[in-house]
Amino acid sequence: MSDQSTYQRLAPSRGQKFTQRTLPFIILAAILLAIPMTGPSRTFYTIAHQMGINVVFALSYNMILGKGGLLSFGHAVYFGLGGYLAVHAMGWIEDEVGIWGSIPVFFLPVVGFVGGALAGALIGWPSTRKAGTTFAMISLGVAELIFAAAFMFDSFFGGEQGISGDRMNGIELFGLSMGPIAEVYWFIAFWMFVGILGMWAFTRTPLGKLSEATRDNAQRVQFIGYNPQRVRYMVFIFAGGFAGLAGGMAAVNYEIFTPDALSLIPSGLVLIMAYVGGITYFVGPIFGAILLTYMQSMLSDFTEAWLLYLGVLFIAIVMYAPRGIAGIVFGFIDGIRGSESGIYIKHWALNLLGILLMLIGLIILVEVSVRWSNGYGDIYEPFGMHLSHTNPLTWFLFLVASVAGIALSLFVKKQKEATA
Hints:
The structure is a single chain. The chain is mainly α and 420 residues long. It has two domains: 23-307, ABC transporter involved in vitamin B12 uptake, BtuC (Orthogonal Bundle), CATH 1.10.3470; 338-419. It is 73% helix and 1% strand. The longest helix is centred in the C-terminal third of the chain and has 34 residues, at 341-374. It is globular, with a radius of gyration of 24 Å. The relative contact order is 0.12.
């Protein structure tokens, strides 16, 4: 048998290619088209816009982390610089400066992409010469440097108040005035789809494959004739560009950019999005961006301790589910397709019950403690129960839920080891 026929057998079939590569984008497009037909509320639109921006931002970060193996603490720099440039371009469109008067606001994410890519080209040239811990420390220093500069150069950054614009100027495209929030949805949906498609296509290019190879073994990449530093540099530029694309989307959505967009907070948030979602999967950062945006927007309305829950989630994912949410989802799918699907579903259900019991115990402890610490006299009252720090029922429920959850998880672990 020839080598060519062997490779043809190993290659995915036409049906597998359609299922794995084309069908997900068809489903995504169908979902984006169907959402406005359900008559969503203004709150839903607001959260959906934030999710769309964060999805592109998180995927751009994973280009250098999950695919390139570069841990960065300053990825918000490229998001922010791209957004700032887009806001300035929005003002140029309003004032009809030069050719800007003939450019629709709809295309401002392209301006953000250019701004982020240029920033990546300038900053990446020295920083990508190193990898590992050295690169991480350089990215942290660059982030602090740019954030400090934002308060010094008011002409570009606008100081603490930032730069604002008006998206309802310039030429209307596709009949969108960019005023009503329902029209902005189509803008966000379009550029999110373009961003996802563009970054997925990048992973299929030779440069995308070389990026993964450099992540796994830079010496072997150099041995076959490629420069690992140049590979990292090129990927860094594209990652900065797509981060700038997300910044351009944010500029149009919020019509303002402040130095906070350049700070370590969004850089840390995008890192958590990628890790929680799963950096080894392309869709992982999408899951993470959707979940964390929802927690940031909705969970914060129910509890002031939502950041604590986010921290616990991040630690739990890193320690016990390093492949993230995507790894859990695809692992479950593979498990139910296996020969012992019944046993797998049983173990999975028991493990899920154990996690829920431990979560109940954690929620009781945190919410009671927060209310007692604040000293305002508020009492945690889930389902009509009066759970104060002096009520024995509070600590009884906490201990029972926590101990039962831990015991059940340990039982499942022993059952898996016995059947392995």
